[in-house]
Design a protein that fits this description.
Rossmann fold; four-stranded mixed sheet; three-stranded parallel sheet; alpha/beta; globular
Length: about 180
């Protein structure tokens, strides 16, 4: 979804997260920066991440973006990361992305290669994460139809830009309910 959003708006820049998990079958090698735990921990200790979190035993982190340019930064992050970004960048626009149902979410997770254990753990955390996410941001988009969801998030970004006089704002995190 975020890649489609960035295609639609050339003033958006999509950050590529780091992870310690293995690449899924069929997953693009450039979907993440895949590293081992030691490299991740070294980068984190050096202050190299805007946010980082552990999920299902794997580490995920967003490298520090250059916020000095004329681009808005799009982050695909989980709830833990969104909370960290909110603390350090209260001006960030957070958008909670939700699947249309738990059945659809389970189907999407399996289609991307998650095993039944991972699917079950993600779904069980989903109810609490949705509650916390709704408290964190007023912007909630249900990703039932990809084009419609991209248009909704793009509209949120445009509305926010207009409220600031039309200029890019810095960090524009987008929560990803699947990763």
């Amino acid at each position: 979804m975020a890649a489609r959003l960035v295609e639609r708006d050339p003033s958006l820049w999509l950050s590529k997260s780091w992870t310690t998990r293995a690449r899924r079958p069929g997953e693009s090698p450039d979907a993440y920066t895949f590293v081992d735990r030691e490299a991740f921990e070294e980068h984190r200790a050096a202050g190299g991440f805007l946010e980082s979190a552990e999920f299902l035993g794997h580490l995920y982190g967003t490298p520090m973006p250059d916020l000095s340019g004329d681009m808005d930064v799009v982050l695909e992050i989980d709830l833990q990361g969104a909370q960290q970004v909110r603390e350090t960048h209260p001006e960030a626009v957070l958008v909670l992305l939700l699947p249309p149902s738990t059945a659809v979410q389970a189907e999407r997770l399996r289609a991307r290669g998650d095993d039944d254990t991972e699917v079950s753990m993600r779904l069980s955390r989903g109810v609490e994460e949705e509650r916390i996410g709704r408290a964190l941001t007023p912007y909630v988009v249900v990703n039932e139809d990809l084009d419609q969801a991209v248009a909704q998030v793009g509209g949120i970004v445009e509305t926010h830009r207009r409220s600031l006089g039309g200029s890019p704002t810095g960090a524009e995190p987008v929560g990803d309910p699947c990763d």
